[in-house]
């Protein structure tokens, strides 16, 4: 997984495609993904196909972007997403999630760095934002390692399974120093 010459992770983002959907279905059934994402519980029939179609169609109108995180052998490691893009304001909300076996190895940080580069470079974004549950300490560490700045907490922002949760807001501007 590491390039021995450079010491960097061999992780790349590829456009999410039909071939990734079985892996996505497995990923969104993971208890941590269920807990910390906006995916509904339980997933309605046909949800993955509908969710994917929104991202696929969003590529053409620049409203969303979805990438599979893969290793050098093209094994699926997770998702890197532009959840919402506002072209006029040049802002984007980004997100990421990993398969259980890919966690704890720096893969999410590298994927977020690549997604950030894509959003600043390809989209011309001027502000990037992450919304992270206050209980998701691992994701907060990823944001910090990728150079994002914690702005604060939005109280009782998100409702899931009749429970409200607080959400940290992390942001990055092109002028911010990055790790």
Question: What does this protein structure show overall?
Answer:
There is one protein chain. The protein is α+β, with helices and mostly antiparallel strands and 179 residues long. It has a domain at 11-129: Gcn5-related N-acetyltransferase (GNAT) (Aminopeptidase, 3-Layer(aba) Sandwich), CATH 3.40.630. It has five helices and seven strands; from the N terminus they run βαααβββαβαββ. It has helices at 21-27, 31-36, 47-61, 107-121, 137-145, and strands spanning 11-15, 65-71, 76-86, 91-98, 127-133, 149-160, 163-172. A seven-stranded mixed sheet has the order 1-2-3-4-5-7-6, with helices on both faces. A hairpin with a 4-residue loop joins strand 3 (76-86) and strand 4. It is globular, with a radius of gyration of 16 Å. The model is unreliable at 1-7 (pLDDT under 50).
pLDDT averaged over residues: 89
Strand percentage lies at: 25-35%
Q: Describe the sheet with the most strands.
A: 7 strands, mixed
So, CATH architecture of the domain at 11-129?
3-Layer(aba) Sandwich
Helix content: 25-40%
Structural class: alpha+beta
Number of helices: 5
Distance between the termini: 20 Å
CATH superfamily of the domain at 11-129: Gcn5-related N-acetyltransferase (GNAT)
CATH topology of the domain at 11-129: Aminopeptidase
What's the alpha carbon Rg, rounded to whole Å? 16 Å
**Shape, please?**
globular
Q: SSE order in H/E notation?
A: EHHHEEEHEHEE
How many beta-strand runs? Answer: 7
CATH class of the domain at 11-129, anyone?
Alpha Beta
* Quaternary structure: single chain
- The strand line-up of the biggest sheet is 1-2-3-4-5-7-6
Q: List unreliable stretches of 5+ residues.
A: 1-7
């Amino acid at each position: 997984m590491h390039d021995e010459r450079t010491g960097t992770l061999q992780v790349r983002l590829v456009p999410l495609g039909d071939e990734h959907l079985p892996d996505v279905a497995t990923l969104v059934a993971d208890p941590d993904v269920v807990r910390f994402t906006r995916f509904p519980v339980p997933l309605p029939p046909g949800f993955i196909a509908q969710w994917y179609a929104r991202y696929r169609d969003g590529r053409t109108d620049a409203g969303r972007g979805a990438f599979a995180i893969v290793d050098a052998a093209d094994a699926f490691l997770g998702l890197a997403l532009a959840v919402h893009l506002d072209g006029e304001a040049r802002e984007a909300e980004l997100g990421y999630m990993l398969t259980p076996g890919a966690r704890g190895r720096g893969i999410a940080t590298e994927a977020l760095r690549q997604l950030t580069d894509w959003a600043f470079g390809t989209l011309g974004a001027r502000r990037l934002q992450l919304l992270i549950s206050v209980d998701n300490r691992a994701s907060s560490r990823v944001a910090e390692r990728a150079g994002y700045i914690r702005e604060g907490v939005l109280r009782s922002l998100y409702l899931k399974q009749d429970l409200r949760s607080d959400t940290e807001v992390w942001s990055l501007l092109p002028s911010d120093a990055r790790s």
